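JOB MANIFEST
job_type = single_chain_structure
chain_count = 1
residues = 187
[input]
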Amino acid sequence: MSFLVLLGIAVAMAMDTFAVAVGLSCSARGLDRRRSFRIAFHFGLFQLLMPIAGWAAGEVSLKRIQAYDHWIAAGLLVFVGGKMLLEFLRGGEGPRARESDVTRGAPLILLSLTTSMDALAVGLGFGALDTPILFPAFVIGLVTFLITLAGTKIGPALGRWAGRWAELAGSLVLLGIAAKILVDRIT
């Protein structure tokens, strides 16, 4: 497999993390370098590890979870997007909104896992092609890190431009990705 093909796969896989990063950082007030790095690091790490897991799990294990992986991914995105939507509808300026940080803990891990589910299938594909996985996984993780970092830098600018409506836009992006996952799986 050529490096350009691998790079194309990596960029395609990173597009959902880019959209989520823009959505999350669009509504984040005062997104600093540490939070941007944290989001990009987690998304990149999960995109690096999931192809390895898919490659190692093999076809039998992956077929067992393929029946419901899209429901899990969509459900997690609906949960986080719905939470953001509720905060927008409540006014988003109360103490709960300030305490909520989606760049920490369980929300970040769940988003990282959700956006990297397709990487399991990619890892399985590499295994079926009898292709070593470590270098492709590293490229996928690095590209995801860089693209996600770019998304976290674009999001706050959009947030400042759109004001409070950015939180609504961010939640709608997450809910839209959830809908896309379900539509893609159904069709």
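[summary]
The chain has one domain: 3-186.
Confidence is low (pLDDT under 50) at residues 94-98.
exit_status = 0
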